[in-house]
Amino acid sequence: MKIMRKCQRGFSAIVAVILIVLLALIGGYMSTLTSVSSINTTVSAGTMQAWFAARSGIEWAVRDLIHGSGACSSPTINLTGGNTNGYAVVLTCTRLPSPVTQYNESGIGMYNVYALTSRATRGNPGDIAYVSRQVNISITDAP
């Protein structure tokens, strides 16, 4: 009987080591899962904010075209500060078609068609929290 006891010594130490390794692997997996979930939530909220910032840029440009000078005052406008929440909003305005001409329809008169692009970005490309959204519209100053 003494020989059996000596053969079975140390068995619980092996089981304990295996359990510790398994628990460490599960803990590492859970921490990675939590980290990825947190990053996904942050980027998702950031992309929605970027879309709203780009949309705000478009609305500002439309207001400027309708109530302003009626022409693209500058081909590219950078909006920063204010309520942009850290987003850089770049507006691009182009009169269509490429050779700048006005359309003339009977009954309406002369009018222009503009292509507006608003791009909102935060962070630098390659960063884990970099977000960017772009909104494109066409608008006319026809009566």
What labels describe this entry?
143 residues; alpha+beta; 4-stranded antiparallel beta sheet; two-stranded antiparallel ribbon; 2 helices
Shape, principal axes of CA atoms: rod-shaped
Largest sheet: 4 strands, antiparallel
Biggest β-sheet: strands ordered side by side in the sheet: 1-2-5-6
Overall strand count: 6
Helicity, as a percent range = 40-55%
Give the total of domains. 1
Share of residues in strands: 25-35%
Describe this structure in words.
- This protein is α+β, with helices and mostly antiparallel strands.
- Helices cover 45% and strands 27% of the residues.
- It contains 2 helices and 6 strands.
- The chain is rod-shaped and about 100 Å long.
- It starts with a helix and ends with a strand.
- The mean pLDDT is 78.
SSE layout and pairings?
Elements: H1 2-8, H2 11-67, E1 76-79, E2 88-96, E3 103-105, E4 109-111, E5 113-122, E6 131-140
Antiparallel strand pairs: 1-2, 2-5, 3-4, 5-6
Short précis:
The chain is an alpha+beta fold. It is built from two helices and six strands.
